[in-house]
Amino acid sequence: MSKAVDYASFPDKRGHFGPYGGRFVSETLMCALDELEAAYERLKNDKDFQAEFDQDLAQYVGRPSPLYFAERWTRETGGADIYLKREDLNHTGAHKVNNTIGQALLAKYMGKKRIIAETGAGQHGVASATVAARLGMSCHVFMGEEDVHRQALNVYRMKLLGAEVIPVKSGSRTLKDAMNEAMRDWVTNVDDTFYIIGTVAGPHPYPQLVRDFQSIIGREARAQCLDQTGRLPDALVACVGGGSNAIGLFHPFLNDESVEMYGVEAGGHGVETGQHAAPLSAGTPGVLHGNRTYLMQDDNGQIIHTHSVSAGLDYPGVGPEHSWLKDIGRAKYVSVNDDEALDAFRELTLVEGIMPALESSHALAYAKKLAVELGKGKSIIINLSGRGDKDIHTVAQIDGIQLT
Amino acid sequence: MSRLTAKFDALRADSRKALVPYIVAGDPDVASTLPLMHKLVEQGADILEIGVPFSDPMAEGPVIQLAHERALVHAVSLNGILELVAEFRTKDQDTPVVLMGYANPVERMGYDQFAERAGKAGIDGVLIVDMPPEEAEPLNESLAKHQLDNIFLLAPTTTDERIAKVAGLAGGYLYCVSLKGVTGAGNIDVDQVQTLMNRIKAHTDLPVTVGFGIKNAETATRVAICCDGVVVGSALVESVANAHKNGADVLEATTLIRDIRHALDAISG
Ligand SMILES: Cc1ncc(COP(=O)(O)O)c(C=O)c1O
Hints:
The complex is a heterodimer of chains A (about 400) and B (about 270).
Chain A: E1 16-17, E2 20-24, H1 27-43, H2 47-61, E3 67-69, H3 71-77, E4 81-86, H4 96-110, E5 114-119, H5 123-135, E6 138-144, H6 145-150, H7 152-160, E7 164-168, H8 175-188, E8 193-196, H9 206-214, H10 216-229, E9 235-239, H11 244-250, E10 260-268, H12 279-282, E11 284-288, E12 290-295, H13 320-328, E13 332-337, H14 338-352, H15 358-374, E14 379-384, H16 392-398
Parallel strand pairs in A: 4-14, 5-6, 5-8, 6-7, 9-10, 9-14, 10-13
Antiparallel strand pairs in A: 1-2, 2-12, 3-4, 11-12
Chain B: H1 3-13, E1 18-24, H2 30-42, E2 48-51, H3 62-73, H4 78-91, E3 97-101, H5 103-109, H6 111-121, E4 125-128, H7 137-145, E5 149-150, E6 153-154, H8 160-169, E7 174-177, H9 190-201, E8 208-211, H10 217-224, E9 229-232, H11 234-245, H12 255-267
Parallel strand pairs in B: 1-2, 1-9, 2-3, 3-4, 4-5, 6-7, 7-8, 8-9
Helix pairs in contact in B: 2-4, 4-6, 5-6, 6-7, 10-12
Pyridoxal-5'-phosphate binds near residues 96, 123, 124, 242 and 386 of chain A.
């Protein structure tokens, strides 16, 4: 591990984390990104803005979310103590809302009235529609046609919240294509539109500001852990789609050298099959969606199709800060297959009475192995990034049960 | 002198406007591209912009998106396109060829390798839509070794300060995006283009072409009055697609370029 890196000082002024990140967009968006960056630089230290953000997190989202000692699961696993950071208990059921609250506030302070967002599983779309409803802004959510079918429940939730859901029919018709389409909308409506990106990807300053908004997870977890156990955890585990819940947990611990970090990617049918969504485990660096990062791509630089049982992890890229943390060795990135994630989904539900999102189930599956490896007397914090209600249809289908 | 500079100098000497058609390599199939390139020149094209297909063409409207998808069905690669241009050069040593595409295929090949092969193939410039000057320094170093121009975009949202900065780094010509939107958009506003062109021309002597939303001889002539050349993309790509769909000869699609040529020549001189 490299020493004496001040992690808090990244990204640099132009949005780079080492060779990653940056601002790879067409000229039309450069000024909009400059404007966003300037607004964020001004507001992130603005007392009124921060007070409003903190108040929304407390009174609307329901923070702080608990740090829960999973006593029975720890006992049955027979290893390190397992703690769950309960982002599933947030309003709208996932960590995504921490970020949408922050970005919608930015939109409000910048005087933008129209919100656009991309979504895969629909969680970020729902979280965007939710904050837009509350602030009286119009909300347009781009969603791959494939995902519109897979996540019908969330599509209807967004519509009830007053958002327009636009099915995206280009490319692979999933999250990456939804992001392409959102970028196209933004270029067209750049004057009055605020694009709420749902993860720590995209052009600078998005990876930074989404990280900052999500870092509430790690700040709380760190304080709660010290309070409840008297010391820091030995390891952190979080699933990685674009990487927002993982960086939110990791970032406040980066300077704590004793704390190990594991990002868990979607192994799909198995990384060796090629049908997965694990760019850090099996990809190569490239440029997509405004930043340089690890990608799933072929020899010609075309982005390849991904697969995961969980729509929220089904993305061929990853936030640039993770690419950098991987290269410098500060965090480790591993993968968990569909089957292992499904087992963890069932296990936590039965043993703790907590039904996790399939995304979060990837973190649970890896943490279980890690708990045994670390052994008794150690402790692990898992980011339980969301609840599993949205996935009941998927699991039922796998069980051969038809829900009406 | 580079082929691009020579071309613009010659056009200026004749008070003519550059006509720059854009097609996607490998659309509708690989065999069509080379004959299309030659035919476009025959119909009056001054410079060819060859689109390098990408799986995620973020700046394109539906027409060109579909062209990228059609080309990728044939697994058209950057390498293959360089070979194609090398073949074009065996018959045509005069018409500048610019590759237009996205960063990732070039990243994947590696900047040095790309620049070397592109130079050898007879490419004159590259326009990478998602690589603004801020990120282009390493690529520029590679391109400079092989006398390739990096062509940058300017947009209605570009501030005067940025225009000056971008113009200082650009080579060959500048590509002015006529409107806030994606390729093929229908909302081109000639007065706004004029305003933008005035702002650009205040900062640079480089030739400036205008693209996005130029569909026919009428829009081309109205826009050409205030700039050095026009780029015709979606309208041509759509004609190619229609010819292909109807089982006609795709070379027929180039009559659009002939018509625009005639109209442009009628207003110049
Ligand atoms: C519950 C949950 N966890 C994780 C993710 C993955 O996103 P990220 O890696 O940005 O946290 C999603 C995305 O939809 C999600 O809904």
